[in-house]
Amino acid sequence: LTEVGIGIVGLGNVGTGTLDILVENARQIEEKLGFPLRVKAICARTFDKKQLPELPASVVRTTEWKEVVAHPEVDIVVEVIGGIGVAAHLIEAALRAGKSVVTANKELIAARGAQLWSVANRAGVNLAMEASVAGGIPIHAVLREGIAGDRVIGLYGILNGTSNFILTEIEKSNSAFEAVLAEAQRLGYAEADPTADVDGLDARSKLCILAALAFGEKLTPTDIYSEGIRRILPVDFRYAHQLKHTIRLLCSAQQTPDGLLLSVRPSLIPQSTILANVSGAYNAIWVKGAYGEDTFYYGRGAGPRPTGVAVVSDLMRVAREIRFGSPERVSPFAHDRLGEYRPLPITRYQSAYYLRFRVEDKPGIIAALAGILAKHKISLDAVLQLPLENWRDLPFVITTEPATEEAIRSAVSEMTGSDFLTEPPLAMPMERGF
Amino acid sequence: LTEVGIGIVGLGNVGTGTLDILVENARQIEEKLGFPLRVKAICARTFDKKQLPELPASVVRTTEWKEVVAHPEVDIVVEVIGGIGVAAHLIEAALRAGKSVVTANKELIAARGAQLWSVANRAGVNLAMEASVAGGIPIHAVLREGIAGDRVIGLYGILNGTSNFILTEIEKSNSAFEAVLAEAQRLGYAEADPTADVDGLDARSKLCILAALAFGEKLTPTDIYSEGIRRILPVDFRYAHQLKHTIRLLCSAQQTPDGLLLSVRPSLIPQSTILANVSGAYNAIWVKGAYGEDTFYYGRGAGPRPTGVAVVSDLMRVAREIRFGSPERVSPFAHDRLGEYRPLPITRYQSAYYLRFRVEDKPGIIAALAGILAKHKISLDAVLQLPLENWRDLPFVITTEPATEEAIRSAVSEMTGSDFLTEPPLAMPMERGF
């Protein structure tokens, strides 16, 4: 058997991690495959100051991605530049040129994965994307092959390492969101513009991809209700702990008889669950199968080498297909054509809820809030008030019996008008599905 | 595309679970594959009293496995009878007849996996065995594809659901091993003859398969040191908790510069780890990669449907290969030919240890034991003695600084001669590798 040639476009964190593994782990890769993977071309905006492993002089170094795609010895193109614009052009160009593509681009795959997969299929090549979700966790291999025989009925995940790091720091140190975010930025766990991470958009793209694969349904990120973590206070963790829960930015995809309920939002989850033990910059995914029941997957959510492992593992799989002539012929997206997994409005969601209020102390507040809940047919479960000093606006909590998101929203909206509230109530579901 | 034909030999728990999924989940399976899997023949010792799903009249029902193997429309044979004897004959016969085999047989694969794989390879067919380890966890898919690009440097597992159920029951209820075992037998979690489960032999077969796949080394179960859970007392959990640990039957495979350290033995593991949160009849595997760092996998260890999912997922993968003509050409076993992963004697193991003693109360016991430890150059870390009433023989604990298993064994052997001990000391490593 001869070699399979690789071209890498993008030499940021993931690109250099991939290159490092391809070079350092070359012997094991060849032993597992029976033939070598050889890097033939690499492309970066600039090669200044890059710490690259030693490569043969014959390897093309270019700043033009088209040279990588056109290189006759490149069989598989690795796209690790990210974003929607250039990445989409280059992936389409490579696929149309008959080259398989391995990508780590969650944003692009979430938005256009099924369409790009069709391009690949028409060209008789593959589009692999293990690295696009939960870097170090091989969740695509699990869904595509490992539990392919099962029917997924629910999927819960912690898919954004930055916000999980921030939440667990707030929990540990009792510090405010802004202070913890600044510290995370200093440590390099959060970007200068943290919006995509802390507002749930990054997690939403990832859930979009996972739910599309798990349920075989065409989904776009805007099908998913999402909410970030900026409003979480340290005191919310104290209340959550009283309830034997913790708070995580939870990605949730549940099948109901009417369709899919999809959301990314801060949620209370029981401390006794394994998911509650996922701390720091880790990712985790809980899958409920109709036959295999619960399985759980955990690992680094990002990082050059963990994500590089995902890229290299995809390269090995695609290379094996190229050598032995067997691309998959059925899209991992949208294998279900009956529409039973169409996304539902989040208002259909049902759960017990945690409602946290900040108020100016006056008599009759609980009575007023309880009256609004009763009006919307929501049963109150408990009222919690910690003996807090140094608070102007007395945060306290009401938990409810299971209710629909629709009823909770109507109640919250009516409460928001009350003159004793200093900000709108914070509502979080108390998730018990895993 | 036309169909791929399936023959099932064995209609016990796993066989009927597999059949149920193939029938109930047929539409999803066909949508994912692009063609159907069709059951063509089933074989059982008897069909009396079997609750089987409805099958077409054309499906062959037989008590002779040879009829399944010889059936011209059977492309893949499922072996789910277990054991070494008949199973080995039938798998070899099927492979030599040019039929791929899917098996759930851990005992056979642990003992002869690499050899059977060679038979399959020479015949140009596949031998798939996801169901042979940790039923509901797709760990083979993970090692073979998901993290193929990584180099595994350590693997820790809880691989026997029965003993994990018994240990967590002892922990919860403070009851003796014998009472909990009897209860587990009553509930169907333990077999009438519990030896394979509680003495670590079942877990040893599973670790043997996983380590062979993870490290690419030829291994047999007797390469693995194993020890069961019969000696664990409820009081061991009380001491473990004092040390912020719990006790699990831990399977451990660690790469060292000199070779592999392999063991199955009750071990103390820190309560703060995710592995310590694995309770009841669940399985879990912690993998350390040179590049991808830590990943973790959790699910049902057994059960007709979780194991059935593993069988059906293997069937889908092998069927895809048959349709598109691409069996793997490199053995998942023994891809490393340099011998750097040869198993080492367990005496090379290094760890802090927990030593538990039952003694007749006399003066000078601690001094005598500490003297023996000092003589073997083992540093004592702590002495723990709970205020226990109603104990004739006062169990107490000494923990050590890291020492080799060899030194610990010498010390324990010397201690065992002491007249104040009512039984030999119980030594367990305190595992901190994950």
Tell me the span between the first and last alpha carbons of chain A: 47 Å
Helix fraction of chain A by DSSP (H/I, runs of at least 4): 25-40%
Structural class computed from helices and strand pairing of chain A:
alpha/beta
**Rg of chain A, nearest Å:** 24 Å
Protein chain pair with the most extensive contact, residues per chain: A-B, 65 and 65 residues
Name the overall outline of chain A: elongated
**Uncertain runs of chain A:** none
Return the average pLDDT of chain A rounded to an integer: 92
Strand segment tally of chain A: 17
The quaternary state of the protein chains shown equals homodimer
Taking the sheet with the most strands of chain A, its summary is: 6 strands, parallel
Structural notes for this entry:
2 copies of one chain form a homodimer. By secondary structure, chain A is of the alpha/beta class. Helices cover 37% and strands 23% of the residues of chain A. Chain A is built from 14 helices and 17 strands. Chain A has helices at residues 13-24, 26-33, 65-70, 85-96, 106-123, 139-146, 161-173, 177-187, 195-198, 201-215, 234-242, 304-324, 365-375, 405-416, and strands at residues 4-9, 37-43, 60-62, 76-79, 100-103, 127-128, 152-158, 225-226, 245-256, 259-270, 282-289, 293-300, 350-357, 380-384, 396-400, 403-404, 426-430. In chain A, the strands form 3 sheets. Chain A has a 6-stranded parallel beta sheet with strand order 3-2-1-4-5-6, with helices on both faces. A 6-stranded mixed beta sheet of chain A has the order 8-10-9-7-11-12. In chain A, strands 13, 14, 15, 16 and 17 form a 5-stranded antiparallel beta sheet that branches. In chain A, strand 5, helix 5 and strand 6 form a beta-alpha-beta unit. In chain A, helix 1 (13-24) crosses helix 12 and helix 7 (161-173) packs across helix 8 (177-187). The relative contact order of chain A is 0.13. Chains A and B meet through helix 1, helix 2, helix 6, strand 12 and helix 12 of A and helix 1, helix 2, helix 6, strand 12 and helix 12 of B.
